C-alpha cells in the first residue's frame, strides 16, 4: 500500500465545494492543464469539504481539497498548498466589495462604508475560528467589533447614519463570507440600517447585484477566482473597493502528505 500512488490512495478524487465557486472552475482548469484526466472533482459544499478534511486528518489519511485563505482550517490543522507552477489558481487574490448600480445615490452611507471597509486576513480568520468553535456568527462578529473599535471607526468615518432603510447583502455559505457578512451586517445595523443577508449560490449572488435585486456582495474574489462572473456582468455592477489583500485559492493537503506540487498528482 505504501507503494501506491497519491491518486490510488485518494481514489483520484479532489474534494471540492459548491459548483458555482470560482475555485471549482479553476480546479476544472487545473485538471485539464496538468493532465489529470483520471481525476474527479467532487462537488459538495464548504461544510462537506471541512467534514471530509476532519475525518481524513483525524486518521492521518491522505486527502486533497479545494482550499482558500483566510480560513479557520489553517488554524485547526497543519496544511499546505500544493505548488501550482502553471499558475492556474492565480497568485495574490483580492476580495472586492461589489455594489449594485445606483447604490451610491440611493444609500450613500452604505456605499461609503463599503468603500472604507478594509481588514486583514488574521481579523477574518479569528472570527471564523470562533464560529467554528460554536459561536453564532453575529456574536463572533459583535465581539470582534468590540475588540477592534479603532478599525471599525475608520470604516464608519463620515458615514451617513441610517433611519431604518433596508439593505440586502447577498452571500454564499463559505465560512469566509459568513464572517465578513456578519461583521458588515452588524456595523450597518448599529448605524441604523435594516439589514437582510440573503444566502444564495455564487452565480445568483453576482446575478442579484447585477440585476439590482440585492444591494451588495462582499465576496468578490478577483482577479482570478470570480473572473468569469465579473466579465459576464461587466457594466452592471460597481466595484466599490478592496476589503482584503493577499488572499489565495488552491489545492490544499495535510502537511503529512509527501507531495508538494499539483504536478505530483500526475504519475
Ligand atoms: N471561495 C471563498 C470562493 C470565493 C470565496 C474561495 C471558496 C470561490 O471559490 O468562489
Automatic annotation (TrEMBL):
It is found in: Cell membrane. It comes from the Bacteria. The keyword NAD does not apply. Keywords: Cell membrane, Membrane, Signal, Transport. InterPro entries: ABC_Gly_betaine_transp_sub-bd (IPR007210). Its main location: membrane. One of its GO terms (cellular component) is ATP-binding cassette (ABC) transporter complex. The keyword Transport applies. Residues 5-147, 166-266 form the ABC-type glycine betaine transport system substrate-binding domain. GO terms for biological process: choline transport; glycine betaine transport. Gene3D superfamilies: Dipeptide-binding Protein, Domain 3, Glycine betaine-binding periplasmic protein, domain 2. SUPFAM superfamilies: Periplasmic binding protein-like II (SSF53850). This is Glycine/betaine ABC transporter.
